Fold this sequence. Notes:
- The protein is an all-alpha fold.
- The chain has helices spanning 11-19, 24-36, 38-54, 65-77, 79-98, 130-140, 147-160, 163-176, 181-197, 202-216, 221-233, 237-250, 254-268.
- The longest helix has 20 residues, at 79-98.
Amino acid sequence: xxxxxxxxxxxxxxxxxxxxxxxxxxxxxxxxxxxxxxxxxxxxxxxxxxxxxxxxxxxxxxxxxxxxxxxxxxxxxxxxxxxxxxxxxxxxxxxxxxxxxxxxxxxxxxxxxxxxxxxxxxxxxxxxxxxxxxxxxxxxxxxxxxxxxxxxxxxxxxxxxxxxxxxxxxxxxxxxxxxxxxxxxxxxxxxxxxxxxxxxxxxxxxxxxxxxxxxxxxxxxxxxxxxxxxxxxxxxxxxxxxxxxxxxxxxxxxxxxxxxxxxxxxxxxxxxxx
Length: 274
């Protein structure tokens, strides 16, 4: 988490901030700090939520700052809970993106609903709604340095249309947490997008990332699909055919099944490929 050393207000000041008893000048300074400090914003948010859920009267009556501070001291010690909360925030933001019917790559991002892919060439790609744009920018501008933050940032960058930066962010996520197949899968999708508009050699990297994801999650359809797309672009059509077949065997979404079947039929066509 982003926590500037030596700059965070102590529990008593944050308690008074929550209670609303700080002088206006000091309150503005604390507000500015909390808005930029992951640790403090979590402590304030969790404490306020705790007070609302365990003492309904807090919504209409102030509590003495020392009592709030005591609660905050307990809350602040639960670092693991803070990590889980930030994970949930990122997961929620990604969930919003995943149901937004965006297809930023011919490949497939983990958990995203099906949407037709339309090739694009611009450096940035407009998103479909204000909410999605806001979530995307929030993830891109996030200050987290853990693998989950880089993963979320990479997906958001890919949606915005910056495939090169998406590859960089997802590569860092994979380096820092190489045991999560979803990161490797999404890195494969980012490489596919990057290779399609910049450097066809990226399809080799996409294939390697998809293979890594497939080895860890053989029953997931997305790595098989991304592997097949990379193989097809590399001209390895026979291998791509069987990779699509493997994706179809593990796919449960009818929309994705339809696309995979179309790709299999195309590869099965006797018409000579250019």
